[in-house]
Write a structure and sequence with these properties.
Helix content is about 50%, strand content about 10%. It is mainly alpha-helical. It folds into 2 domains: about 70 residues, Fe,Mn superoxide dismutase (SOD) domain (Helix Hairpins, Orthogonal Bundle), CATH 1.10.287; about 110 residues, Iron/manganese superoxide dismutase, C-terminal domain (minor pseudopilin epsh fold), CATH 3.55.40. Strands 2-1-3 form a 3-stranded antiparallel β-sheet. The mean pLDDT is about 95.
C-alpha cells in the first residue's frame, strides 16, 4: 500500500517564500490524508495494490465505479504532491539549463515566455488545482492547468513541473494573494530535478 514520502529538506528550508508551518500542515495533514484515503479505496482491490500510482491513474477510466472518484481525488493528490516536494528545495530558483532549457526555448520561444505562460496557467485555475509543465503523449512540452487533484498522468502525459494552487498551499502566508505566491515560488524551483525528469522521460 502507499506511504507518505519524506521530504528531503526541513519544513523551514523554503522560507521566506513558503513558510514552515504551511509546509508542515501541507505534508503531514493534506498529503497524509490523501494517502490514507487512497489506501482505504484500494483496500479490497488486490488486483490494483501492486501497481504504481502512475499506472493506476493512467487507467482510471477502467477502475470500478465504486472507487474511481476516490482514486481520482486521492490518488491524484498523492501523485501530485509526491512530485511537488521533489521539484522544490532550498538555494534553488534560477533558470533551467541543458537540454531542458533548449527544449523550453524551442517550444515556447524563450524561458521568460514559458514562465509567463506557466504563471498564467496557475493564476487561471478557478478555485483549486495545479499548473503543469509536461511532456505530452506526442513527445512535446506543454503547459496547462488542471482542476482539483487531477494529474497529467490521467491523460498519459508525464508531469515535469507542478505548482499546487490550492489555498492550503499558500493561505497562511499569502491569504488570497495567489499572484504573490506564484511569483515567490519560482525562487524554490529545483531546475536540476526538473531537468532530470525531462531526461528520463525523453529516454523512455
Amino acid at each position: 500500500m502507499f506511504t507518505l514520502p519524506e521530504i528531503s529538506y526541513p519544513y523551514a528550508a523554503l522560507e521566506p517564500h513558503i513558510d514552515a508551518r504551511t509546509m508542515e500542515i501541507h505534508h503531514t495533514k493534506h498529503h497524509s490524508g490523501y494517502v490514507a484515503k487512497l489506501n482505504a479505496a484500494l483496500e479490497n482491490q488486490e488486483s490494483l495494490q501492486s501497481f504504481s500510482i502512475a499506472s493506476i491513474l493512467a487507467k482510471l477510466d477502467s477502475l470500478p465505479d465504486s472507487i474511481r472518484t476516490a482514486v481520482r481525488n486521492n490518488g491524484g493528490g498523492h501523485a501530485n504532491h509526491s512530485l511537488f516536494w521533489t521539484i522544490m528545495g532550498p538555494e534553488a530558483g534560477g533558470e533551467p539549463a541543458g537540454d531542458l532549457a533548449s527544449s523550453i526555448t524551442g517550444t515556447f520561444g524563450s524561458v521568460d515566455s514559458f514562465r509567463q505562460l506557466f504563471t498564467d496557467a496557475a493564476l487561471g485555475v478557478f478555485g483549486s488545482g495545479w499548473a503543469w509543465l509536461v511532456l505530452n503523449t506526442q513527445g512535446s512540452l506543454a503547459v496547462y492547468g488542471t482542476p482539483n487533484q487531477d494529474s497529467p498522468l490521467m491523460k498519459g502525459d508525464t508531469p515535469l513541473l507542478g505548482l499546487d494552487v490550492w489555498e492550503h498551499a499558500y493561505y497562511l502566508n499569502y491569504q488570497n494573494r495567489r499572484p504573490d505566491y506564484v511569483k515567490a515560488w519560482w525562487n524554490v524551483v529545483r531546475w536540476d530535478e526538473v531537468g532530470r525528469r525531462f531526461a528520463e522521460a525523453t529516454r523512455s
